[in-house]
């Protein structure tokens, strides 16, 4: 089976696009990725498209109508916040199987206004279990469980927002490019203790796309900017003897990471950077441990050390992350990979991680799906 390479990557600037459709945004990102690869849509054997709120509207086919219909298969996927990683995973399989030499993965979303919720729970409502089924409350509860077990402080959670907002000032495509000192983060509106408004992901529109090819095709195009997919892993939450309506954002990420490290033949010590699913500041702290970036219970000390900031031992969310770059749900998983690709190519200017050769991207879909991809400079 062929190795799989990414040869084209594009993310449009995240923000609000009241006068454009989600498929127009997807088309812009797709054309940018194709141009980056030196290919046209006629070179593509299949399209894998991801969205969440626009999931039932044939995104892939509508993107093709914008950029040139070709009759190729379009596979439209929806997997909550893991939708983009799911599309890339399916694209990876399409190349790995030998069916296609070149495919397009595109994620696009126009998020509704206001606070975003998850899919409705079936069975007993969780309201009495942890106060609310809203996403801020769910991740606030997860953070407080960590705080109770390991002494993680409000200031440590808030430092994640300080770091990621600082990183975003160096990303021209981030939705919000503003420094937020610790005092400002702590003083912003309380949404769900310990999460203030500036510790919650930015609700925006956006799109991102990748072109994946076989090794044969990559060599034809030239390997100088190619990025190898060392691992592509997508899992659902493993069985645990727990209350079935409780939300678990840890075990599913731990499983995905373990399987991805095994596929890649690497470990967390080999990573040069990470783009992870910081839907809330508490989530980033939890995922430091879930991805093996530090030992269990050490995440608070890791953020205090500065190791996860640009220039540190293992920079995390140098793009600005979901907190500041933005979180257009169906596009997020693809966008995280675009950042890693551009970092490994050395093309991101002042936010460049020096000497980056191996990077990991991660997304979490409602606690029931996780995608982890490990990429390597060719």
Describe it.
This protein has 378 residues and is α/β, with parallel strands linked by helices. It has one domain (4-114, 202-377): Thiolase/Chalcone synthase (Peroxisomal Thiolase, Chain A, domain 1). 37% of the residues lie in helices and 19% in strands. The chain contains 13 helices and eleven strands. It has helices at 22-37, 59-67, 83-96, 127-130, 135-150, 154-168, 182-187, 215-221, 251-264, 281-290, 299-305, 321-324, 329-345, and strands at 4-11, 46-50, 74-77, 102-110, 190-192, 195-196, 205-214, 227-236, 273-275, 358-365, 369-377. The strands form two sheets. The protein has a nine-stranded mixed β-sheet, with helices on both faces. A hairpin with a 2-residue loop joins strand 5 (190-192) and strand 6 (195-196). Helix 6 packs across helix 10 (281-290), helix 6 (154-168) packs across helix 11 (299-305) and helix 10 (281-290) packs across helix 11 (299-305). It is globular and about 55 Å long. It starts with a strand and ends with a strand. Mean pLDDT is 93; it is low at 126-130.
């Amino acid at each position: 089976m062929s190795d799989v390479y990414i040869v084209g990557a594009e993310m449009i600037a995240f923000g609000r696009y009241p006068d454009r459709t989600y498929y127009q945004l997807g088309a812009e990102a797709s054309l940018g990725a194709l141009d980056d690869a030196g290919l046209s849509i006629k070179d593509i054997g299949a399209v894998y498209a991801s969205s969440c709120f626009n999931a039932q509207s044939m995104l892939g086919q509508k993107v093709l109508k914008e950029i040139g219909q070709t009759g190729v298969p379009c596979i439209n996927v929806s997997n909550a916040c893991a939708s983009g990683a799911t599309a890339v995973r399916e694209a990876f399989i399409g190349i790995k199987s030998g069916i296609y030499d070149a495919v397009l993965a595109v994620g696009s979303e126009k998020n509704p206004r206001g606070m975003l919720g998850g899919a409705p729970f079936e069975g007993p409502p969780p309201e009495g279990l942890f106060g609310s089924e809203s996403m801020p409350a769910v991740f606030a509860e997860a953070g407080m469980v960590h705080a109770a077990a390991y002494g993680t402080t409000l200031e440590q959670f808030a430092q994640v927002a300080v770091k990621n907002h600082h990183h975003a000032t160096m990303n021209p495509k981030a939705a919000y490019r503003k420094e937020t000192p610790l005092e400002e983060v702590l003083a912003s509106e309380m949404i769900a203790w310990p999460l203030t408004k500036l510790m919650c992901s930015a609700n925006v529109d956006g799109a991102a796309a990748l072109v994946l090819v076989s090794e044969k095709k990559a060599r034809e195009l030239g390997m100088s900017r190619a990025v190898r997919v060392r691992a592509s892993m997508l899992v659902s939450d493993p069985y645990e003897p727990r209350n079935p309506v409780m939300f678990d954002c840890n075990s599913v990420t731990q499983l995905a990471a373990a399987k991805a490290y095994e596929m890649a033949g690497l470990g967390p010590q080999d990573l040069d950077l990470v783009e992870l699913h910081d839907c809330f500041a508490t989530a980033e702290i939890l995922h430091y441990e879930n991805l093996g970036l530090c030992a269990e219970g050490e995440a608070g000390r890791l953020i205090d050390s500065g190791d996860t900031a640009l220039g540190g031992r293992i920079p995390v969310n140098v793009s600005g992350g979901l907190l500041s770059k933005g979180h257009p749900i169906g596009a997020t998983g693809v966008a995280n990979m675009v950042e890693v690709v551009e970092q490994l190519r050395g093309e991101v200017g002042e936010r460049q991680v020096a000497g980056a050769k191996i990077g990991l991207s991660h997304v979490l879909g409602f606690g029931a799906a996780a995608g982890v991809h490990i990429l390597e400079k060719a």
